[in-house]
Amino acid sequence: MIEPKPAIQPEQSGPKPKKRRFGGTEAQIRSALNFYKVMAYLTGAMLLLLCAELIARYGFGVSLFAGGTNAVTGQPFGFGFAESEPKGVIGGFNISTSVLIVHGWMYVVYLVSNFRLWSLMRWPFSKMVLLALGGVVPLLSFIVEKKFHAQVEAELAANPQASKRY
Length: 166
Fold this sequence. Notes:
By secondary structure, this protein is mostly helical. Helix content is 54%, strand content 10%. 25% of the residues are buried.
């Protein structure tokens, strides 16, 4: 005769530790980490430059130009700040607008680097949101990069077998 077993099994000695797995090899993770680090610093620097440009444009009404013709005097314009509205320089290269465009595209590449690191580390989605905010909030990319760089290094050191794929 088969003896009946209780519906609830007794606890084993202590909870089993959760086995940590990464989405790639250690070399892939380190490559993603280095790419993220470079993009975090570049995007953070461009964001600070963007903030300075926005203060100049909306606080003082000037934009940074290179070349062109002074709209008031008709003289050649070299390099410097000129009125934004009405246009103080005609036909010059608007460096202020270029900063906006370059930062926008760098942020897209920064998001790609975030996604690559996030997916290889298999972190929760909340960390992806925090990584993405680094390119939007001034100075945050430098802080977040330092924090996550240390965390990746610690996780790689604590789980040497987690990145073995085969």
